[in-house]
Amino acid sequence: MRPYVITRGRSRPSRNTVGVETLLVATVPAKPLPVSAAREERALVRMCERLLSLVEAAAHLDLPVSLVKVLASDLVDSGHLTARSGVPQAVLPDPKLLQEVLDGLRRLR
Length: 109
Known about the structure:
Blueprint: H1 3-6, E1 23-26, H2 39-47, E2 52-53, H3 54-61, H4 65-77, E3 81-84, H5 95-107
Antiparallel strand pairs: 1-2, 1-3
């Protein structure tokens, strides 16, 4: 089946932006999918009963990542999936500090 048929002609996610590193998990309690849900949407929700990254989901579904982004975004919008982002930039350590620690450790030799 053509990707544009699965996404109903859309090539971009609606309003939720999900990246390739985004972690997806099905909402609890599970919300039933509408009868009109595509087979790929049902499979995505089923496999996300456990935490799964968007890229892993695309690999398991054997679909392009861009297509799974659209499906996942729709499912997040409808409340079937929850998207979890990675570590925010503000939480990551300062690269300068890491370099100073590395330099200090090298001087200990």
